[in-house]
Amino acid sequence: FSSSDLNEKFKNVTATNRNMNALTEWAFSRGVYFAPGVKVGMHEKYDDWGVILDQHQIAGTTMVKIPSSIVLSSSSIKFRLTKEAINFSINSLLNHRMNEYTPEFFLMISILCEYKKGISSPWYPWLRTLPKEFNNGLYLDDLERSCVKQVAFEFLEHQEKQWKSFYTTTKFLGGQVRGLSLLTDGTDDHLIRWAFSIVFTRSWRTQDEELSIDANIVPLGDMFNHDSRRNNVRVHQNRTADDTSVRIVLQKDAGTDTGLYLSYGITQYPARFLVIFGFCDESCPEVYANITFDDRHDQKEIGDMGFTDSTKMVFRAKDGAIGQTVWNAVLYKVLRMEDLDGAKKFYVAHQTNDLRTMVELHSKWETEVMLQLQNHVREMLKKHAPPLHFDSAEAIYHHPRLELIAKYYTLMNDILEKVKEQVDLAIADAHRKNNR
Predict the structure, then answer these.
(1) Which of 24, 62, 202, 436 has its CA at a distance of 20 to 30 angstroms from the CA of residue 18?
(2) Secondary structure of the chain in HEC code, one letter for each residue
């Protein structure tokens, strides 16, 4: 295909008309193994393609095995770049403070190089089946972006910085790398954005024995969808002399008509999935409580007590249950404002597992802690109040991603309402005890 494909032929290509039969045929021809009953099919949950199992298999079974010869890697492209181009890229990303994502950048360049080859690329059939548009942060229009910015500013800002650094660096390389010169004339900006989105929605990292980090896209492995609660497969990277393949292995017994899911990680931030991947993770088991601390607080103490660990600072999605670390964090904030000696006492008790002292402090400051948390949850609910645009059919017609964004707002509102109910009940119980 030509460099204008994304802008012309592939514009508005939907999930349902991607040619997955051609992808499967290509996979077989390149040595990909599928376990009996494993197939690529439309996934009802996501209204998108995914990997499905239609017969019983037991835990430990390899569902798909992909030879390393078809894995796209950030390290392989370096052999095709001049030393000058490599050094410029690394320094450019460093200047943008995005050097952490150097592997993803070189993987994006690799994809662009293969795309520009067209039908002569060994990955041509796979490239043809990739989505041509996304719902992630880079594809939002101004109205959609304003709605997401209200609830996911940090993720949007970070993505914008990543995109700016990748775009600027790629423009330079367009004049240096054979086959990418057209990237310098401005007509293929949409192509760079597409390749950027492919990398950040479909790749994962690996580390070799020398601790060198690669970003990889594993064709067919990239077809596994995410589910925070039902993830049932895991990636195994073989590194023996005889076998460097990638295996996707079943983690638990599965029956017929079962979706096969990977976890895309960091499940307590639904906003991350909205901005980076372009979907609403309604399967999230917990959400980050967003209890923050400023420079007035002792950063070492905060870290020691787990208040910077986002996996512990959570509200449970199904019932709004509040993690003990959250209660501890709110108590610590109250003590830092009202009783510095008490804050130090609580820290020492926490570090020495002195449960009696911790319970005593929680009991003494119970009302203040609950009221502080109640106010915090109310503020979170205000922040996630659905914009008026969500009630307008005309707005959704002209801004189609509003429907997805509205789903995210609904998810967070439902969870936070449950949390608020938990806090309100705790306050009511405390009042009844005090009035006896």
Answers:
(1) 62
(2) CCCCCCCCCCCCCCHHHCCHHHHHHHHHHCCCEECCCEEEEEECCCCEEEEEECCCECCCCEEEEECHHHCEEHHHHHHHCCHHHHHHHHHHHHHCCCHHHHHHHHHHHHHHHHHHHHHHCCCHHHHHHCCCCCCCHHHCCHHHHHHHHHHHHHHHHHHHHHHHHHHHHHHHHHCCCCCCHHHHCCCCHHHHHHHHHHHHHHCEEEECCCCCEEEEECCCHHHCEECCCCCCEEEEECCCCCCCCEEEEECCCECCCEECEECCCCCCCHHHHHHHHCCCCCCCCEEECCCCCCCCCCHHHHHHCCCCCCCCCEEECCCCCECHHHHHHHHHHHHHHHCHHHHHHHHHHHHCCCHHHHHHHHHHCHHHHHHHHHHHHHHHHHHCCCCHHHHCHHHHHHCCCHHHHHHHHHHHHHHHHHHHHHHHHHHHHHHHHHCC
